[in-house]
Specification:
The complex is a heterodimer. Chain A is mostly beta strands. Chain A has a domain of 79 residues: Immunoglobulin-like (Sandwich), CATH 2.60.40.10. Chain A is 0% helix and 50% strand. In chain A, a hairpin with a 6-residue loop joins strand 4 and strand 5. Chain B has one domain: Sandwich (Immunoglobulin-like), CATH 2.60.40.10. In chain B, strands 2, 4, 5, 9, 10 and 11 form a six-stranded mixed β-sheet that branches. In chain B, strands 1-3-8-7-6 form a five-stranded antiparallel β-sheet, with no helix packed on it. The chains are: A mainly beta, B mainly beta. At the A-B interface, strand 5 and strand 10 of A face strand 4, strand 5, strand 9 and strand 10 of B.
């Protein structure tokens, strides 16, 4: 079975630009979460989506948004990029319920903002 | 405010010996805990979990211990193998919660 897939794997953007990151969950998983990991830190929660609805949001500015599609795939959008947005963005799926199950991560998208 | 802490940034262990990785948390509402292993250029890989109704969970060479009164958990790897060399993260959540809080990781090196 395929794991969580994320695209693209690497991305270089300029300050002020916008970026869209994509994620496909493990088949049967209805919950998708997004995490940001900067060097030397653990992953930080950005969003959780379950059954296409936002179920949680971390301490990130409104420049960050996401959505989940009917096939449970998800996109993370970041507007007006700042240098500090440079990080590894991890998508994770879990299931079958919304809670009480471990997160399964993709390999991430490495975003560099110059 | 770091609610999950891994105070040892690194650990070196001889092959065949036991590796013990530690994790502390501050939020008494946490009742579901996970351990992950991360290799460079890969996402974290789920290893083992434990809920607060247990104080121990085993899966092969991996055992997680939970001490709720001390708000402390540990991961034991026995015997350690060179392929275990990676960064290990602990994570915590409340069972009804929608987010996990991660520690900063411990880099384990298993020396052949």
């Amino acid at each position: 079975d395929a794991g969580v897939t994320q695209s693209p794997t690497h991305l270089i953007k300029t300050r002020g630009q916008q970026v869209t990151l994509r994620c496909s969950p493990i088949s049967g998983h209805k919950s998708v979460s997004w995490y940001q990991q900067v060097l030397g830190q653990g992953p930080q929660f950005i969003f959780q989506y379950y059954e296409k609805e936002e179920r949680g949001r971390g301490n990130f500015p409104d420049r960050f948004s996401a959505r989940q599609f009917p096939n449970y795939s998800s996109e993370l959008n970041v507007n007006a990029l700042l240098l500090g947005d440079s990080a590894l963005y991890l998508c994770a799926s879990s299931g079958p319920g919304q809670t009480n199950s471990p997160l399964h991560f993709g390999n991430g998208t490495r975003l560099t903002v110059t | 405010d770091q609610q999950v802490k891994q105070n040892s940034p690194s650990l070196s262990v001889q092959e065949g010996r036991i590796s013990i990785l530690n994790c502390d948390y501050t939020n008494s509402m946490f009742d579901y805990f996970l351990w992950y292993k991360k290799y460079p250029a890969e996402g974290p890989t789920f290893l083992i979990s434990i809920s607060s109704i247990k104080d121990k969970n085993e899966d092969g060479r991996f055992t997680v211990f939970l001490n709720k009164s001390a708000k402390h958990l540990s991961l034991h790897i026995v015997p350690s193998q060179p392929g275990d060399s990676a960064v290990y993260f602990c994570a915590a959540s409340s069972l009804a919660g929608n987010q996990f809080y991660f520690g900063t990781g411990t880099s384990l090196t298993v020396i052949p």
